[in-house]
Amino acid sequence: MLKEIFIAELSYEAKTTRNFLSRIPAELMTWKPDEKSMSLGDIAIHIANLPGWGLTTLIGTSFDLASPEAEEFKKNQPDSPTDIQKLFDKNIAALEAILQNVSDDDFAINWSLKMGDNIFFTQPRYAVLRSFFFSHLIHHRAQLGVYFRLNGIPVPPSFGPTADEQA
Fold first, then answer.
1. CATH of the domain spanning 2-150, picked from 3.40.50.2300, 3.50.50.60, 3.20.20.70, 1.20.120.450
2. In this predicted model, what pLDDT tens digit does every residue of 21-78 receive, in sequence order?
3. In what order do the strands lie in the sheet with 118-124?
4. Chain centroid offset of residue 40 CA
5. What is the pLDDT of residue 34?
6. Angle of helix 136-150 relative to helix 40-59, nearest 10 degrees?
7. How far is it, in rounded angstroms, from Cα 58 to Cα 8?
């Protein structure tokens, strides 16, 4: 039952996120509102990689930020809006495929995020998928919406109409 819930949510969030990613202008990839902030392109790349974090949650019992696998997330980063969209679609397809074969018992297995011997948290996979992937994705998509607003790019709807796109 849980997999059906997550698959439905993934479908909705992927469609909404694709709409955001489709609006990224190539000339603003390096733009950021201040020196402390990520660039628009870096946020978009992070969003494109997040389904891989969901995948990692479902195929293992932990992720070590100090591991060689963590370095893989930093390699081959796309440098164009089109390539970011392709990476997102590839990662969403992989996550959808894994979700098809996950049981409710699999969702209950504990999963940990760590860096070497330092464990940041341990939670059941369903809680990690909800927060570490879905909420994380929505958070950064909202950041992208703020960046759009600051640059005069119409903000697409997420959970209802925006000031730019009324229903």
1. 1.20.120.450
2. 999 999 999 999 999 999 999 999 999 999 998 999 999 999 999 988 888 777 768 8
3. 62-64, 110-115, 118-124
4. 14
5. 95
6. 170
7. 17
